[in-house]
Amino acid sequence: MTAKNLIYDGTFDGFLSVVFYVFEHKLKTVTIQNESTVQQGLFSVNETIPVDETKANRVWNGIKSKCSTQSRYQLYYAFLSEQIGVEDLLLDYIQYVFSQSKKVDKDYSHPSILKIAQIAKYVGREKHRMEAFVRFKLTQDDIYFANIEPDFNVLPLIEKHFKNRYADQKWVIYDIKRNYGLFYDLEKVELINMDFPENFNFTKTDDAFFASQEFEFQKLWQDYFKATNIESRKNMKLHIRHIPKRYWKYLSEKQPN
Hints:
- This protein has helices spanning 12-24, 53-66, 69-79, 86-99, 111-133, 155-165, 212-228, 236-242, and strands at 3-8, 30-34, 44-48, 137-138, 144-148, 171-175, 180-184, 189-192.
- With 257 residues, the protein is α/β, with parallel strands linked by helices.
- The chain folds into two domains: 3-126, no CATH class; 134-254, no CATH class.
- Strands 4-5-6-7-8 form a five-stranded mixed sheet, with helices on one face. A three-stranded parallel sheet has the order 2-1-3, with helices on one face.
- The longest helix has 23 residues, at 111-133.
- The radius of gyration is 22 Å and the shape is globular.
- The relative contact order is 0.08.
């Protein structure tokens, strides 16, 4: 039988629609690929599967009946990792739990279940780091803006945290690696895409875009950081472990005066 390469739109509902298609047609030899990263296999046939929310919900309800809340989180977190081949791992995981009469979502002797748990752990760690290291800057439009470029697609995971924590101000958190962001307008959060000026430097605070008081705030923050930093007790190895260097360029306290 010719292998099928099933293409989806990159969304979680799109992925679940593909899973439904696999079960519906009893397919055995398949790979699943995001439409943005499609590679044609030498002996496979590409087929695009459209999003079907009804079918996606049926798959998700089936997963809910077979998996604990923690395991469902792990599935979603692993999906957001965007790692090459993660869709095939997820499919194997789902096929396994559906094939068993008892719950096996904690059966870490199964390779896919173990691997999904490991990937989800990495994504969860990145989520917590983004919640800790995001730094907002006040724009001239009175909107607080922060840019990130996380290893994994964690924007959907940090939305609730920032909506609850900064409910009284408008803000944007923009993933410049994936070119989309979250905009909170004091009532709801929505997904947005933005066009930035050519050669826009996300690590700098440009006075053409940001409010004058933002510069004063950053200076105060830098002075506070220096005042509380006891030079004789500096432990850079420990410091870097807690705040990896790749995050420094977005932290006010790490910028030169």
